[in-house]
Design a protein that fits this description.
By secondary structure, the protein is mostly helical. About 45% of the residues lie in helices and about 10% in strands. Mean pLDDT is about 85; it is low at about 1-5, about 45 and about 55-60.
């Protein structure tokens, strides 16, 4: 297979054997098609990309030609008599690994990717979208992934796509898309990835953001966060203003990414990606003592003030 064999499809209708399949234009532009015999496909390096995940250590890696979402026209497709009797796709599925009946189900589903279907079929399509994020139609695949997230609320898909969207935005230098993810509250929780993105965007951390990450910082007493959330948030803002002059923890200009220790993190679900791209070493704020210590001190001070306020309130009764 050469690079042209897995270029995005530019058609809206394609035939495989006696079956014809129609797909929306946006989906057609994001599909990978090949007329080659998959048994002869080389999985050697194909596309070189330079990827720097905020580590300060850019590298050039190779994306192999073998793409698990590629639709091979030479593989048979059979319409099943009863789709309910067809087994679900295997773990880490690929188009090649589907049975002829499963391929019919998948290709038919591409006409409407919002339709309910086993998550294995969704992942076959999603793998190709991840490749598009890095080397192809970034904006179109970005929108398509958001669409999948809206209609397929599967924990694995949400987790993988969360990391892929965020880090591909960094690779593509698309701060506008990063800001969109924050503005639309696509991030379910901040976590280390969110901290890296906030740092990349030049954001400081509000009391809401600090409370969001508090469960990941060792040694924080979360008693009043759970039992007195409104009071705790108000007093945390008070502590921030007294310490820093504003209700934010200075963050983006306070810590240097190069100083952070690193830990391995899964960024992409596509199993054809090299390990250096799929599971690279990522700088980790929660393993960085100066950051964790500062956050812990803020929460200790807030905890003590909440305790005093509650005690004073009881005395006034």
């Amino acid at each position: 297979m050469n690079d042209q064999d897995i270029q995005p499809a530019k058609i809206q209708c394609f035939a495989i054997g006696s079956c014809r399949f129609l797909v929306p234009p946006r989906t057609a532009r994001l599909l990978y098609l090949s007329e080659e015999d998959p048994s002869h496909v080389s999985f050697g390096p194909s596309i070189a990309i330079s990827l720097d995940m905020l580590s300060g250590q850019p590298g050039v890696w190779q994306l192999p030609q073998g793409e698990p979402s590629t639709i091979y026209s030479r593989l048979p497709v059979n319409e099943p008599a009863n789709t309910d009797e067809i087994p679900r796709p295997s773990y880490y599925p690929s188009y090649v690994g589907l049975s002829p009946e499963q391929r019919w189900i998948y290709l038919t589903w591409l006409r409407d990717i919002a339709a309910p279907i086993n998550i294995g079929y969704v992942f076959i399509y999603y793998y190709g979208l991840e490749r598009q994020l890095l080397t192809g139609e970034f904006d179109l695949s970005f929108e398509e992934i958001l669409f999948l997230r809206q209609h397929h609320k599967h924990n694995s898909l949400l987790a993988y796509s969360n990391a892929a969207l965020l880090h591909s935005c960094i690779y593509r230098k698309r701060k506008d898309r990063l800001q969109e993810l924050y503005r639309n509250e696509e991030l379910e929780r901040l976590g280390n990835t969110g901290l890296l993105i906030a740092h990349h965007l030049g954001y400081d951390l509000s009391q809401e953001s600090l409370i969001n990450i508090s469960s990941e910082v060792d040694g924080i007493n979360r008693r009043y966060i759970k039992t007195q959330p409104e009071l705790f948030a108000a007093i945390l803002s008070e502590v921030l203003r007294e310490k820093y002059g504003d209700a934010y923890l200075p963050f983006a200009g306070r810590y240097q990414i190069a100083d952070l220790p690193s830990s391995q993190q899964i960024l992409f679900a596509n199993i054809s990606f090299p390990q250096e791209i799929r599971t690279p070493l990522i700088p980790n704020f929660f393993d960085y003592g100066p950051f964790s210590d500062e956050v812990r001190k803020l929460f200790d001070e807030t905890h003590q003030r909440v305790k005093v306020r509650l005690k004073e309130g009881r005395k006034r009764r």
